[in-house]
Design brief:
heterodimer; A: mainly beta; 53% strand; globular; B: mainly beta; 4-stranded antiparallel β-sheet; 0% helix
Amino acid sequence: AQSVTQLDSQVPVFEEAPVELRCNYSSSVSVYLFWYVQYPNQGLQLLLKYLSGSTLVKGINGFEAEFNKSQTSFHLRKPSVHISDTAEYFCAVTRRSNASKIIFGSGTRLSIQP
Amino acid sequence: NAGVTQTPKFHILKIGQSMTLQCTQDMNHNYMYWYRQDPGMGLKLIYYSVGAGITDKGEVPNGYNVSRSTTEDFPLRLELAAPSQTSVYFCASRSGEASPLHFGNGTRLTVT
């Protein structure tokens, strides 16, 4: 069965600093990978996704993520964060062979300090 | 388009009562999902459906039931509510297996 581990439950950073949110997955088969963002009191919305092809994926709001098959990781990065990036970020995985079931990680709360 | 609509937004339930959380989508998506979100635990999959008449269990199905009689609707039924079911419940849908999920705004349920 697949699983997702987000290693940091909270990440505080200063405004305009770079940030990396870590995500590792466990699966013996090929996967699709997603990052979602949840702003306070809202549902989740897609930031970016990896399906195939280039391992560097660009998303909305200046975020990008790199798929690393050998390390089974899909870390999310942004070179310079803004106050408006304050939110909770979720990594999700689904198996390509049976992509009906989508499993989420426990989330990382990103707090931006001025 | 309204997208994914969940009702109610908030509800307080007494222990042992039952209720149905409603979810409807107007995007003609085949795939629909119910998740619960608890602090520090992320989202846990309760049930999902790949089309009308087809449902399957997720990670935490105990205490819940679902049905999918139409493409649009995917209600979640809580029988004999317990305090452990206090949570925020999210319904989501998507068009295909590689497509992103579209989420509703959630239902905050308290069982007391």
